[in-house]
Design goal:
With about 350 residues, the chain is an alpha/beta fold. The model has no long low-confidence stretch (mean pLDDT about 95). It binds pyridoxal-5'-phosphate.
């Protein structure tokens, strides 16, 4: 292997750092009198810890949430370990040892996890209480266990199941969280995710934990004017091909040309998060619409270039990423649309 640098990529995602910072500031303002933290799990929802965490910290975020212990090493390069919470908590002594050595906080999700942490020597931790999502978190009745009173709890959290809907469960969860707050002594209390922030000051407590909206997702229409698009994926045109009437395109030949037309091949596919469900979409070039024809075929898509016959190999095309719209068109959630972005786009 010689050390020649690889040629420039033909896929990229342009990240609007100003928009990312502005989104955090906006969500922080909306979290008053509390502060906004930042959910940075799943590699900042697919946009990259290396690019996003320094921006979020620069904007003022001081509380960072990851899901797995395996995600701590990347984040701790940019923020103090004591600012990182690990949502999945602890399942083994290996994890408690790692937590104590690194200094990131486990989010205790059960009495067993509390026991594991206490037996390992304990220290600062967070506690998640389940108020109705029935996923992670101690049951309300477990909060009165004497073990919980022995923990050094920085943040007591709970997570809303349906904050993106007008659901009666939001009020129910709020009521239970207030009860939990009276039962567990912690430095801070935190309930709301991105959508929860919109529910207003009853829900924001000391700290909120936005994820999706930081990265441009719009979980509730109220946020439309407040949240800016952050990710702008692009792909370069790889090849032009003139199709004849009757030519079949892509896997299974599902598209059959009904006329002569210029087509363009773009190297983007499943591994880049461009799934078959986006097959009915179009890419654009300076506002000109270039519909996909045929199926997304592994690493490639084919476009109808009728609207842009002047395009050349290497020209950059825009992949629509207006979050709510793009998600709706392909039937994925905004969470999925972001987190499936593949490494080749970075
Ligand atoms: C992922 C996550 C968040 C962020 O949620 P969004 O809906 O992306 O804002 C907040 N809190 C917890 C516990 C999470 O798991």
């Amino acid at each position: 292997m010689n050390d020649i640098a690889p040629p420039p990529a033909t896929l990229r995602v342009n990240l609007d750092s100003d928009a990312l910072a502005a989104n955090w500031h906006q969500l922080d303002r909306m979290s008053a009198p509390g502060r906004a933290g930042a959910a940075v799990k799943a590699d900042c929802y697919g946009l990259g810890v290396d690019r996003c965490v320094p921006v979020l910290r620069g904007a003022g975020a001081r509380d960072f949430f990851v899901a797995h212990w395996s995600e701590v090493a990347d984040v701790v390069r940019y923020v103090p370990a004591s600012d990182i919470s690990v949502l999945h908590g602890l399942i083994s002594r290996t994890e408690t040892d790692y937590a104590r050595a690194v200094g990131a906080r486990p989010v205790i999700n059960s009495l067993d996890q509390a026991k594991l942490w206490a037996e390992a020597g304990g220290g600062a931790c967070d506690v998640m209480v389940d108020t109705g999502i029935n996923r992670l978190g101690l049951a309300m009745r477990d909060l009165s266990d004497p073990l919980i009173a022995t923990l050094d709890v920085v943040t007591l959290l709970s997570h809303l199941a349906s904050a993106d809907e007008a659901s009666p469960s939001n009020r129910r969860q709020l009521k239970l969280f207030r009860e939990a707050r009276a039962m567990v002594k912690a430095k801070r209390y935190s309930l709301a995710n991105s959508a929860g922030i919109v529910l207003g000051p009853d829900y924001t407590f000391d700290l909120t934990r936005p994820g999706l909206a930081l990265y441009g997702g719009i979980p509730r229409p109220e946020l439309t004017d407040d949240i800016r698009q952050v990710a702008y994926p692009q792909a370069a045109l790889l090849l032009r091909r003139d199709l004849e009437p009757g030519d079949r395109v892509g896997y299974n030949g599902t598209y059959i040309a009904d006329r002569a037309l210029p087509s363009g091949i773009v190297s983007i596919g499943y591994a880049d998060g461009f799934l078959r469900s986006r097959g009915g979409e179009a890419l654009t070039h300076e506002g000109r619409v270039l519909p996909l024809i045929g199926k997304v075929s592994m690493d490639m898509i084919v476009l109808d270039l009728t609207n842009a016959p002047d395009l050349r190999e290497g020209d950059w095309l825009d992949i629509p990423f207006d979050m709510p719209g793009a998600a709706q068109r392909c039937g994925l959630s905004q969470y999925e649309l972001l987190t499936v972005i593949g490494h080749r786009l970075r």
